[in-house]
Amino acid sequence: MRNNMRTAPNDPHLLRAALDFSSNGIVIYDCVRDKQGDIQDFRVILANKKAEEITGMTEAQMLGRLVGDLFPGSLEQDFWRYAAQVIASGQPYEFEAAYPLPNGREAWYTINLAPYGDGVAVSLNDITERYLRQKSSEEQTDLIESMLNGSLNGLVMFKALRNEQGVVYDLQLKLANEAAASLTGLSPDEMVGRTLKKLFPTLAYSGLFEQYVQTIETGSSYRTESYYEADGLNGWYEILAAKFDDGVLVSFIDITASKRYQQDLQKYIEELQRSNKNLEQFAYIASHDLQEPLRKITAFGEVLQTQYGHVIDTFGTDLIDRMRSAAQRMNVLIQDLLTFSRISSQREPFRKVNLQTIVGEVLGDLETAIRDKQAVIDITVLPVVKGDALQLRQLFQNLLSNALKFTKAAIAPNIRINCVQLLGRDITPLPGTSVRASDLDKEFYAISIADNGIGFNDKYLDRIFTIFQRLHGRSEYQGTGIGLAIVQKVADNHQGYVNAHSQIGEGATFTVYLPVAEPMVEDMGVRLKK
After folding, report:
1. 281-292 pLDDT, tens per residue?
2. Which single residue of 123, 205, 337, 459 could bond 112 by disulfide (Cβ 3.0 to 4.6 Å)?
3. Alpha-carbon distance 55 to 75, whole Å?
């Protein structure tokens, strides 16, 4: 009874149902032969539902049609070649090819050919989605490789190699860019697949291997600067390691040049510190050992003049006066040197300094000279800056003292103190100097002190800010030639600049450029006369 109910395996209805149920497109072709029996073409004798969907034609529309009608172009040629090979050899063949869909798009299929009677059975498996994913992945890989090889940083990716207990015993290189390969003398392809301990055996025992393992196990990034002299390498490297899957991505760059520059700079700083200590020792000697005998010379001169003046002739009295004058000049020189020394070696933390207050205090100190010369002082509103109040006071003390000193006979001094705000690129520095590139777009205050005095020849501009340089003899104007050197040193200490311009007999203008600390209040202008 059961045997009578069993369906024969060659039941055409069952076979047809199975074909239509298949997710692959199936088409069977019969050979079209000439009188000599040679294959001329292939004609469709069967097509299932999936084949109808792929081609956009019904089976009835496909029956009796030739290969060229269904697969025009290169696919027709591939089919012909492979189908003839399958029929001749009796062996199936598989290949991949693109096929234009009815909607105008392109699909990719794995095509299997197998002998069937006097023809060939074709199975088409749609691999379009997989193909596009693979193509996208390959394009992304090409892009990533291009970016990696264009990077100046060496980039390598290691995969953890673990023993049976799960402990990382080595790292296998899975990726390396050109910058990384250039350090080893190998190509990236030659590096890939090798292990860290084989590529860099010394590095593996330098502590970096353990750090990489810790990054893999904890996910914490690691950064260091390390000197490496082994395995063909010799230099400083900045290394950054980050976890990537069950491995580590390492980025490194050769910083040997910058490290050596940094070391040289540190050496220069240490030498400068030693020089500053020597300067401090000089300042101590100047303030103690030199001043003590000078005070005695001054005191003995006074004794000679007061107690023995009646027994000393006119020539002797003149010698005593000259001695006391020289001692006084020596005292002023020592004081100026001490001031220059302190400004050069002692730095207080910068605080907000109101320049209006500073200049007011300086004018108070110069009140006698201002009154004696009937000087007129015009002052604009001055800003608040960040700096050292004592140094800035010394700067204005020297500039205003000079303006009151180098005056024309019988002409009252007229001194104008002005302030404008400008960018660093608009600063005019001293000849032979330039504005730092980092200051070009910064804002500065240009504070100028202009007078109507004797002026000077601009060709000496490079000299007047040099210590001990004087344009006039001591018999004409008192001074040590240190004042303007102090002005420039204070400006330098405040990351600023100085300049001056003048013509003989037409007065002089000195300009100090100081970085802006906060916006300047509205210029109201103040006129002082004492």
Report:
1. 666 666 666 666
2. 123
3. 14
